[in-house]
Amino acid sequence: MNTPNPLAIHPDNAVVWYDDKLFLLDQRVLPGETRFVACDSAADTARAITDMVVRGAPAIGITAAYGVVLAARERFHADADGWRDAVGADIELLAASRPTAVNLFWALERMRRLIGTLEVPDPVSALLAEAQAIHEEDIAANRTMGDFGAELIQGPTDIITHCNAGALATGGYGTALGVVRSAYAAGKVRMVYADETRPWLQGSRLTAWELAQSGIPVTVQSDNVAASLMARGGIGWVIVGSDRIAANGDVCNKIGTYALAVLARHHGVGFMVAAPTSTIDMGVASGAEIPIEERDPDEVLACGGKRIGPEGVAAHNPVFDVTPAALVDCIVTERGVVQQPDAEKMRALMGVLA
Ligand code: MRU
Which 8-state DSSP code applies to residue 327? Predict the structure, then answer.
């Protein structure tokens, strides 16, 4: 699951269970500083998700699952009879940490279901095994998606990606960057253009660091460059991840993704979304129903810790947007590829009867 030194500074080590604790590679300070934050309780874990020590939809889900293990350990040792109720409250706390990525709720539901059926005297090892299974399944899904996505790419070509949908955002290997990794290994990628992704700079701080660590050629560009780059030619695909995909194939992802999809369609560039099925929410009919997180306006009015906007001016900071399914060429999942997604194809992928 992890590199030989479990606490090595490595993109695959965004979320590490080691020495009976949860360690998170602190994504707020990368690449300038490299450090882990240790979590010992559900409250620590929820705070780390809210504060974006860890971020990215699958990584948030995996982290929350380990948070349930920490909660169960604490609650069971305090009260071996009443621990389930107390853990229920901890799960609510974890669920309130961020609203948009459905992987968080998916992972918590999986842990909650197991708690409901557990009959062993000590629940901790069974819950830890489940969290580790969620983690390992995510890595395996990413590798499968990498192969499926790479097959669709006729190279060599240039690729634009947005935000960070890499190892840092997942259990390891990455979703969009997993496709990039597999395609690069197959000689199909010339250059990855990483949008810097204002305001939090996931692209320049995280994607560029992660790809450089892996020896994959990367060029950072401001979020305004994509149109002229596509017009110049040479971009084969925009490849992004997702935080939640609705039942009709609408794709919610980092703010700015929708603009890229419009640009891609205009310029005849492919638009690929790579996401595990844990990101698909068949409970929301369309993207309009997905809650979009609004973060502190100061994230927009400052950059690198320095105020850049005038005092007293308002800013709005919705951190995700929805790309309509009609602009998506394909959704790559570990179960297969959905071309030109719509409600019927999503139902077929997820095995839901009409
Ligand atoms: O706000 P963030 O950094 O958690 O947003 C992350 C994204 O938007 C990613 O693109 C998405 O989670 C896909 S991660 C494999």
Answer: G
Active site annotation includes 195:
no
Mean pLDDT of the chain: 96
pLDDT in tens, 223-236: 999 999 999 999 99
Three-state DSSP class for 114?
helix
Query: What atom of ligand 1 comes closest to residue 60's alpha carbon?
Result: 4
Is 73:124 a contact under the CB 8 Å cutoff? Answer: yes
Amino acid identity, position 159: I
The model's pLDDT over 168-200, given as tens digits with 9 standing for 90+, comes to 999 999 999 999 999 999 999 999 999 999 999
Angle, vertex CA 165, rays to CA 260 and CA 159, nearest 5: 50
DSSP at 242: -
Closest CA to 165 of 210, 135, 132, 200: 210
Cα 166 from chain centre: 8
pTM for the model:
0.97
CA 198, CA 213: separation in Å to the nearest integer? 22
Which domains does the chain show, CATH number per domain? 11-139 (1.20.120.420), 152-350 (3.40.50.10470)
For 184-243, the DSSP string reads HHTT-EEEEEEE--TTTTIIIIIIHHHHHHTT--EEEE-TT-HHHHHHHS-EEEEEE--S
How far is 259 from 206, CA to CA, in rounded Å?
21
- How far apart are the CA of 243 and the centre of ligand 1, in A? 6
3-state class (DSSP) for residue 131? helix
Which residue, chain included where needed, has tokens 């020495």?
19
Name the residue of 161, 243, 245, 321 whose CB sits within 8 Å of the most ligand 1 atoms, as the mutation to test its pocket. 243
167: left (phi over 0), alpha (psi -120 to 50) or beta: alpha
* Ligand 1 pocket, CB under 6 A: 55-58, 101, 163, 165, 169-170, 175, 202, 241-243, 253-254, 319
Which residues have CB under 8 Å from 73's CB, separation 6+? Answer: 124
What per-residue confidence (pLDDT) applies to 24? 98
Strand partners, 271: 238
